[in-house]
UniProtKB/TrEMBL annotation:
A molecular function (GO) term: ATP binding
Lineage: Bacteria, Bacillati, Bacillota, Bacilli, Bacillales
InterPro entries assigned to the protein according to its UniProt record, in alphabetical order: DNA_recomb/repair_RecN, P-loop_NTPase, RecF/RecN/SMC_N
Protein name, as recorded: DNA repair protein RecN
GN (gene name): recN
Gene3D superfamilies: P-loop containing nucleotide triphosphate hydrolases
Amino acid sequence: MLRELSIRNFAIIEDLTVSFSDGLTVLTGETGAGKSIIIDAVHLLAGGRGNSEFIRHGAKKAELGGLFQISSTAHPVYKKLEEAGIEIEEDSIILRRDLNDSGKSVCRVNGKLVPLSVLRDIGASLIDIHGQHENQELMDEKQHIHLLDQFAEAQLSPILEQYSIQYNEYRALKKELASISIDEQLMAQRIDLYQFQMKELEDANLKLGEEDELLDERRRLMNFNKIFERSSAAYEAIQGETKGLDWIGTAMGALDDAAVIDEQFKEASESVTTAFYALQDAAYQVKNVLDELEFDPARLNEVEQRLALFQNLKRKYGSTVEEMLAYYEKIKTELSELLNRDEILQLKERKVLEMEVVLSELTEKLSHVRKAAANDLSEAIMAELRELHMEKAKFIVNFDALPYFDVNGKDQVIFYISTNVGEPPKSLPKIASGGELSRMMLALKTIFSSSNGVTSIIFDEVDTGVSGRVAQAIAEKIAAISVNSQVLCISHLPQVAAMADHHYFIKKEVEHDRTFTSLAEIDTDARIEEVSRMMSGAEITDLTLQHATELLKMANERKKQMR
């Protein structure tokens, strides 16, 4: 849930930090005080579109921050954080977003810089914002099938998992088939190209490690004179007459005689003896190499040409011999497929047909489970709508069969509703009445709030256009949703404010010719006054205070029954 929200230099808000708890938090205040600005800030914090117009006049940037606490590792945000390489500590997630006056924004999740798309993806798992006419998940026809699948998750999940595995294999096979199904001219050109490339690589007779060996050989050939001179000088210094080895031999004999008389010279005698024979071996090795050393200008030319061939092949087939050999194997396989195209095409086409049979069986199972769940969902939603005084409403889950397989099967699912007797059901997003739209959304939210995975649900004046018993029903429905999810609600209805577990009052003040917005939680007495104001307008009387007190008392009794 959203534990803390901080806003700096955003619209008319200079500096605001507020802590939230679970349950239902209601934000009220006079029109223009900045209630919707707070929701705008949360929307941007969750990855919504923003620009420099949101920055408070005179400031260089707006700063938004939110602390979320996630108690369950099964929450879908954990997977998204892992995919983004973001660590989570102590069940806390911190979102930050800075809007600069240049129009650019800087996004961070737990201190790590992330693209806006990642912030939006993570934010969608944490916050669900609903405005009166906002076309969010529930109002998006493409999302209806996911909501139905969520409703039937226990029965549907095993089948959907099998289908997903088969569907992914099917798509991969279809892609392979498409790559084989090329026109004859293009195929002939590709065969010629692959044959030429294979011959060029075969003629090169590439060997692993050869290039390094050639580079070493070229270095030796190019430095032949220096190698010969230095090795000859070394041999002469060691092995020549009255040179190093003779003197060390003299020392060896002398120390050997001394060691016979005095054991103190024994260790030195042994060391000199070892050195003598080691130098003697070294001299033999140098002599053997010198005897074989021979400068061959033709060989140097061969090495240079071979290395030039390597460079030419690298430009075409890979930066290393390993990559070039891997490319050779790749085109060898592709050439074989092209030359045996008809046979391979037939095999893959048969495999596609076999997989389509399996997929068809799975889609039938998916449809069967979905249609059974659709009846239960329809009944559940209509029961919720009756509680919201939409007794005549009819909710239908409409199914159409797609002519192809997609990631969800072959079902196209769209929620339909009729709110008036005699009117045919229409697609849910096409409902025009704000009050009906609000109640429809609340009915769906009540059913899905315990399992939709989001941490915080925010309602931005979704109760607009209703009053009386409908307003009371909406208030109770919002409170019911808050049993399973943290709910933040901006409202003008006293019935909704009375159901709040936490009530914040937003006010706007002018100081030194600047406008400031402040937010503070109010106590019982202040709540009575605020609910009274919401009931009657600006004028508060003893009677409205009495009605407000009674409304709050009734709301408390109703909440006890819910929880």
